[in-house]
Amino acid sequence: MSLDTSRTEARPERLTAHETRQRLAHERNSRLTQLQAIGEAGQGTEEVMSAQRDTLERVLKEIEAAFTRVEDGSYGICLGCSRTIPVERLEILPYTRFCVPCQRATA
Length: 107
Prior knowledge:
By secondary structure, this protein is mostly helical. It is 61% helix and 0% strand. It has one domain: Four Helix Bundle (Hemerythrin (Met), subunit A) (Up-down Bundle). The longest helix is centred in the middle third of the chain and has 27 residues, at 46-72.
């Protein structure tokens, strides 16, 4: 029996709603912790702190929107091309709204 079974096992085409909610909750909690740390640090220039705070708040909004997509059944569908977003991308960035080609096109 190999210890590295993850490479040989087939990946599911989609994450379950439970797995998705867990990943999104973890992402949300991480960002909230980062926001709290920024607030407590008080170090660095105000511009840098403000930019970091703005980025974290934007990501938190994206995470909340992903929870909504889970509930309405549209989670994992690219908003650009309407194709299924590969599960590997959702594992890395569970709140993404776009597949890689469509993300590149919007950037």
